[in-house]
Design brief:
Shape: globular
Number of strands: 4
C-alpha cells in the first residue's frame, strides 16, 4: 500500500477495468492514485458487504473474490465518493472535532485534580476564563499538581488558537455556500454546525427521500420484526458520521434554549417524558422485609 506500488498496479490495468476496494482510512488516497489508469474505482461499504456475504474464513484472497462476485452480480453496496472540496471540508471538520475532544479531555483532567484534593467548585461561571484562573491559582494543592495544572492551561491556550484558526478556515470555505446559508436560517444552527453538516451530507440530491438522509447520519430507530408480528422500535442506530450527530445535538440544545416554537416543542416533549417515568415503590410496599431494612 504505497503510491509507487499502486501506480505500478494501475499501469498493468486497462481503461475498461474496474477496481473495487473496501472503505478504509486511506481509501480516498487509493482512489486518487488508481483513477487515472482504470475506468472506475468503486469503494464498497464494509458493513453491508459483511451483512450480504459473511464468511467464517476471512482472508484477503477470499475478500477480493467476494467483492468481485458482488460487483459481477451488480449487488455491490457502493459508497458515494465526495468531490475535492467536500473532502477538504470533511478533513477540516474532523480535525476541529479532534481539537474539541482534546480540550474536553484536558479540562476533565484539571477537574479531576481539584476533586482529588477536595477543592470546592469554582464560584465563577467559567473555570478556565480569566476570573476562574485567578481563583484557581489561589487554591492550596501540592506543587506537582499545580505544575500539572499550569501545563494543562498552556495546552488549552494552544488548542484554543488552533480551534480559532480552524474555525476561520471552515468559515472561509463555507460562507458563500447557498446550502450553508439555508441551514443558518434554522434556530440553533451556527456557521460551524452548518458547514459541518454540509460537509457530512455532500450532494443532497443523492438521497431519494428524507428518511434515507436520517438513516445516513444514524438517527433512524432500530426496527426488529419477525414474521407478521408487530415491529419493535428501539434506540437510534448511531451509524454513519458521529460528529454530524454531535453537531445536530449541539444545535438542538441551542434551539431548546432560544425562545420560539422549537423550545416549546422541547418543553412539551420533556414534560411528557417526565410523566412516563416509572415511580419507585415506597419502602412499605417492599415484600422482602415490609420496609424495615
Amino acid at each position: 500500500m504505497t503510491r509507487a506500488r499502486l501506480a505500478a498496479l494501475g499501469r498493468s490495468l486497462g481503461k475498461d477495468d474496474e477496481v473495487v476496494i473496501e472503505a478504509t482510512g486511506n481509501a480516498m488516497a487509493v482512489v486518487r492514485v488508481l483513477s487515472p489508469y482504470v475506468g472506475r474505482v468503486i469503494v464498497a461499504n464494509p458493513l453491508q458487504v459483511k451483512a450480504i456475504a459473511h464468511a467464517h474464513v476471512k482472508t484477503d484472497k477470499i475478500d477480493a473474490g467476494v467483492l468481485a462476485s458482488l460487483r459481477a452480480a451488480d449487488f455491490l453496496p457502493e459508497i458515494w465518493l465526495p468531490d475535492a472540496d467536500t473532502e477538504r471540508r470533511r478533513r477540516l471538520v474532523a480535525r476541529r472535532n479532534q481539537v474539541v475532544r482534546h480540550r474536553t479531555r484536558i479540562k476533565n483532567e484539571v477537574h479531576a485534580i481539584l476533586h482529588a484534593h477536595l477543592v470546592p467548585p469554582c464560584p465563577h461561571a467559567e473555570l478556565f476564563g480569566r476570573l476562574g484562573r485567578i481563583w484557581l491559582s489561589r487554591q492550596i494543592i501540592p506543587d506537582d499538581e499545580a505544575a500539572a495544572i499550569d501545563r494543562h492551561l498552556c495546552e488549552l491556550d494552544r488548542l484554543g488558537e488552533d480551534l480559532a484558526g480552524l474555525d476561520r478556515e471552515i468559515a472561509q470555505t463555507a460562507v458563500d455556500d447557498p446550502a450553508v446559508k439555508r441551514l443558518l436560517t434554522i434556530t440553533g444552527v451556527n456557521l460551524i454546525v452548518a458547514a459541518g453538516l454540509v460537509a457530512a451530507i455532500g450532494d443532497i440530491r443523492r438521497f431519494a427521500d428524507p428518511q434515507k438522509l436520517v438513516s445516513y447520519v444514524g438517527l433512524n430507530p432500530r426496527v426488529r420484526q419477525s414474521g407478521l408480528g408487530l415491529a419493535q422500535h428501539g434506540r437510534i442506530s448511531k451509524r454513519g458520521r458521529s460528529h454530524a450527530r454531535a453537531m445536530l445535538v449541539e444545535a438542538a440544545w441551542a434551539a431548546a434554549k432560544a425562545p420560539g416554537p422549537l423550545r416549546a416543542f422541547f418543553l412539551r416533549i420533556r414534560a411528557r417524558a417526565a410523566t412516563r417515568l416509572p415511580r419507585s415503590p415506597s419502602p412499605a410496599s417492599w415484600p422482602c422485609c415490609a420496609g424495615t431494612c
